[in-house]
């Protein structure tokens, strides 16, 4: 019961605060600005990305956690963008094959339970030449001690942060799902604990 209370009433607020760390907000702005038209956003969360969509008219806001989506309602009401909540999982998207031009994922791939299945679904619904725009914290490849610590702490992190994995090798997962990299950049985000500081900023195409 205590854990359920934490998940429903405490974690959504913690997530909302962490996701507004200035260095992360800068990356959101950089990721969103070139995007136009319709967007499927995986893990819409509390709607932090909404102000950065400058040329988007519709956002399909996929967010399976209804408690977290409730915290997005004010941002949704204040936005000029049409937002359609999609309460479904990334592993089973309610969209037709080859139907979406742009998909956005910001710090979401870490928490999807069955990541290969979800990436297969993202690849399926993207139009040929469509783009998945993403930024994600990832497994260290050049620091064995931190990599070991990420592996050690991931079971605890999953419990505290709604399934979040510290140790996912996102680049390899995207390649395994047959995505082609259009843009790729690794960086360490300021204001984030070292254990989760290494980030991947990328745009990949079908």
UniProtKB/TrEMBL annotation:
Per the UniProt record, which EC number(s) apply here?
2.1.1.163
InterPro entries the UniProt entry points to: Methyltransf_11, SAM-dependent_MTases_sf, Thiol_S-MT
Alphabetical keyword list: Methyltransferase, Transferase, Ubiquinone
Q: Which GO terms describe its biological process?
A: methylation
Instruction: Provide the protein name.
Output: Ubiquinone/menaquinone biosynthesis C-methyltransferase UbiE
Q: Which Gene3D superfamilies match?
A: Vaccinia Virus protein VP39
Q: SUPFAM superfamilies under this entry?
A: S-adenosyl-L-methionine-dependent methyltransferases
Q: Name one Pfam family in it.
A: Methyltransf_11
The residue ranges of the Methyltransferase type domain are 40-132
Species lineage, top-down? Bacteria, Pseudomonadati, Pseudomonadota, Gammaproteobacteria, Moraxellales
One GO MF term attached to the UniProt entry: demethylmenaquinone methyltransferase activity
Which organism does this sequence originate in?
Answer: Acinetobacter bouvetii
**CDD domains of this UniProt entry?**
AdoMet_MTases
The domain of life for this entry's organism is: Bacteria
């Amino acid at each position: 019961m205590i854990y359920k209370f934490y998940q429903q009433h405490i974690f959504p607020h913690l997530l909302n605060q962490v996701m507004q760390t200035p260095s992360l907000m800068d990356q959101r702005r950089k990721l969103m600005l070139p995007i136009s038209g319709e967007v499927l956003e995986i893990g819409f969360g509390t709607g932090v990305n909404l102000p950065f969509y400058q040329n988007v008219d519709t956002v399909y806001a996929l967010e399976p956690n209804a408690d977290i989506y409730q915290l997005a309602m004010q941002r949704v009401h204040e936005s000029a963008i049409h937002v359609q909540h999609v309460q479904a999982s990334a592993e089973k998207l309610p969209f037709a094959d080859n139907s979406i031009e742009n998909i956005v994922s910001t710090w979401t791939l870490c928490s999807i339970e069955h990541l290969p299945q979800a990436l297969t679904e993202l690849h399926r619904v993207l139009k040929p030449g469509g783009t998945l725009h993403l930024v994600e914290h990832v497994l260290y490849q050049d620091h064995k001690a931190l990599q070991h610590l990420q592996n050690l702490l991931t079971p605890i992190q999953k419990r505290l942060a709604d399934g979040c994995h510290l140790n996912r090798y996102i680049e390899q997962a995207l390649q395994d799902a047959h995505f082609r990299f259009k843009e790729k950049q690794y960086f360490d985000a300021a204001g984030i604990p070292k254990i989760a500081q290494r980030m991947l900023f990328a745009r990949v195409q079908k």
